[in-house]
Every structure is written in C-alpha cells, then in structure tokens.
Design goal:
Helix content: 25-40%
Number of strands: 18
Largest sheet: 7 strands, mixed
Bound molecules: fe (ii) ion
Structural class: alpha/beta
Strand order of the largest sheet: 6-7-8-9-10-11-12
Strand content: 15-25%
Number of helices: 14
Distance between the termini: 46 Å
Shape: globular
Length: 396
C-alpha cells in the first residue's frame, strides 16, 4: 500500500473519501496540498463554500462544463496535486473525478458532497478546570455550535443539533448522566435536537416560554435569574434573559465565567433581530440586552451558537473570545445611543431564507418534517448574524 507523509493511503488508491476523512486531512499538519474542484453551479458555489482554517486551493468548474468540454476543463486542474471533486450530494462530482483520473490526475470524489459537509461535527474541549469541562461541537459547514458542559458525573447540553447520536455516544463513553438540555431560543436556521435529546435521556428540556407561545412540545420555561446545578455544587448555571434576536433569547452563564450567548452575541457580530418580522421593536430589546452585558468584566468568555466562518476561529478552530476582545473589535458594542444602534443594525440585515419559517415551526413542534425536508432546509450556512460587524471584522 502506498502511503503519503502522513501515513494515509495516497488518494489514487481510492475513488472517494468521506467528508470526515477530508476534514482530518485538511486539519493535519504537513499533509500534501489538496486542490478542490467544486462542480456545482456558480450560484450554488457563491452561496456556500467548503471552508476551514486552512481551506485548500479551490476552483469552481461547473459539471455542465465538464460534460460539454471535458478536455478544456481537465486542463484547468493541476497535475501535481491531489484533487478532490465536490458537488451538492456527491453524484456529479463522482463523474468528474472519474474524468480527472482518466487524464492521469490523482483525483477522488467527496462522498455525499456539501450535504455531508453540512452534517460534519467536530468536538473540541474549550474549557477545563479541576471541576468542569466544556466541549464545543462545531458543525463546521453550517457554522452551528453546540456545547456539552460537564461537572462530576453530570452533563448539560446547550443548543444541540438534530443529529443527537453524537451526544448520546459521548455521554455513554464518558459515563455521564445528562441532566439539562438548554435551547437558548427557538432556532430558525436549523432543526433543534433539544426535545429528542431530552426524551432519549430523561433530561429536563429548558426553553423560554417567551419564544414558545405556540409550542406543542413539553418544556420547562427558563426564566431570567433561574439557577441550575450540575455535578459539583460549586458551579452555578444561571439563565440570563437576553431578548433581541428573539423575545425569549437567554444567555446561559456558567460559573460566572463562561457565557453561552446563543444568537445574541457572536465573536464578530450579533444576532439579527428581524426574523420574527418585528425588527423595529426587537432591535430595542437587543440594545438593552447588550447594554446589560456591561456588568460582566472583560475577561469572561463568550461562546456563541453560531459562527460566520473561519475568520472567527482561532488556530485550533475554536470559536470563542473574551468579552474584552469583542468590545474592542465590534463597533456595535460601543454605540451608546439606542437610535444609532437600531439604525446601524437595521441597515445590515441579510436576506431571510424562506426555509426559516418552516424550521421555526418544526422547532416548536407545530410540524413534523421528514428526514428529506430537514436535509433540504438545513443546506447552506446559517444566516443568523447582522452583517455590518462581520464586514468590519473582515477588514482588520
Ligand atoms: Fe437563531
């Protein structure tokens, strides 16, 4: 068996790789350079790209062009790199990978394509002390983050994704009892795994009733100031009402040190206040919520539920920042006039995908989607953030 420097099989021995293999390969230092040939349409490519801390060189050569002009397209792909062909679900790119192999290139297909990339999860420990550990689970392709909080033999999960097997496996492997499941708010960009995970484990499911007026599922309402314990009684978990992105948005404060901010505050932006169709009102709430964060010092850590991409990640791919850094880098944090804040936020709201209303209904239990619907609705990156601060961050 031929191996490259990393000990992996050379790609020429395979016809396809999984997104997990691709991800591991991209994250491994000293891997031979990859070259991505993305064969989706220009529009699909523009809307959602495969990205990571070090994204390989990528070219967009639509499938239809490969059909019509295979030689010209093949000529645009380097001969001296390992090539991965990528499409929406792995079918068209399989065909292209075959053409590229026949031309002598070391090419493989990415099984499942961007659909599979959007369902890839990467867990990393982001906080560890004598009595507690926190794991950030990054759904890399969508930019959705969830958290496993551990103290003693007990755990809590914040904003679980719908693929709950990963949390169940982790709990089992680490002999942990799941006690609490928090949804910081009713999500619109993805299907929550909160109810399923709580049902599967007997944990308590918590959500603010302000977000759940029409909810059909069982939950305990999280109120501002409510306290919870986990494992060692030294730690307090406190719910902090944070309306703005939604009326019931709640920040989970862990040990007065870590703030799980949901979609209220991101590393380089804030959660958009317009998804309920009441932006003019909700933006005022968001302003008050942000002002309320002044009671926290610069050294507390912000752990959000979304990321807009690798520009927000550290060298290990972790998405967290001190509140001090966010205050220094996000201009929206420092606006002290409600009207100016509202004007700045409302001028920078991205378009709302039409699937968001459907996902919101699913997340309050008012509609039970099929697996196929959930896959379709969840395609693409989240669009939960105000764009202005992200742009400002990108320019630094
Ligand atoms: Fe959200």
């Amino acid at each position: 068996m031929k191996t490259d420097k990393t000990g992996l099989k050379t790609m020429s021995e395979k016809k396809e790789i999984t997104t997990q293999e691709l991800f591991s390969r991209m994250r491994r230092e000293n891997s031979p350079p990859l070259f991505i040939v993305d064969v989706r349409t220009e529009d699909d490519y523009a809307a959602w790209k495969l990205e990571d801390i070090h994204t390989p060189a990528t070219i967009n050569l639509p499938y239809i062009d490969f059909i019509e002009e295979p030689e010209r397209m093949t000529g645009m792909v380097p001969e001296d790199k390992q090539v991965v062909a990528l499409c929406g679900k792995g079918g068209a790119s399989d065909y292209v990978a075959d053409i590229l192999r026949k031309s002598g290139r070391d090419a493989v297909n990415v099984a499942g394509g961007m659909k599979s990339w959007g369902e890839l999860y990467h867990p990393q420990t982001v906080y560890e002390s004598a009595d507690a550990r926190v794991i950030q689970v990054n759904r890399v392709g969508k930019g959705c983050l969830s958290y496993i909080l551990i103290s003693g033999a007990e755990a809590a999960v914040v904003d679980p994704a719908r693929h709950i097997g990963q949390y169940l496996d982790f709990l089992k492997e680490n002999n942990l009892a799941l006690k609490l499941v928090f949804d910081t708010h009713i999500h619109a960009d993805h299907i929550s795994g909160g109810v399923l995970l709580a049902e599967a484990t007997g944990a308590e499911y918590l959500l603010s009733k302000e977000d759940a007026a029409d909810a059909r599922m069982k939950f305990r309402s999280m109120e501002d100031g409510m306290e919870f314990s986990l494992g060692s009684s030294k730690f307090r978990i406190v719910a902090l009402g944070a309306p703005g992105h939604t009326p019931g948005s709640t920040i989970i404060v862990f040990d007065n040190n870590l703030l799980f901010t949901g979609d209220t505050l991101f590393v380089s932006s804030m959660g958009r206040p317009d998804l309920g169709g009441q932006a003019a009102e909700w933006v005022k709430d968001l302003y008050q919520t942000i002002q309320g964060l002044k009671k926290f010092g610069d050294d507390v850590f912000i752990l959000p539920t979304h990321t807009s991409g690798p520009a927000e990640w550290d060298g290990r791919g972790i998405v967290m920042a001190t509140l001090g850094r966010i205050r220094a880098e996000n201009p929206l944090m420092n606006i002290t006039d409600e009207g100016d804040f509202a004007a700045s936020v409302l001028a920078h709201l991205p378009e709302q995908p039409d699937t968001y209303d459907k996902m919101r209904k699913a997340n309050i239990g008012a509609y039970t989607p099929t697996e196929e619907e959930m896959v379709q609705w969840e395609l693409g990156k989240n669009r939960c953030a105000i764009e202005a601060a992200q742009e400002a961050m990108g320019k630094q």
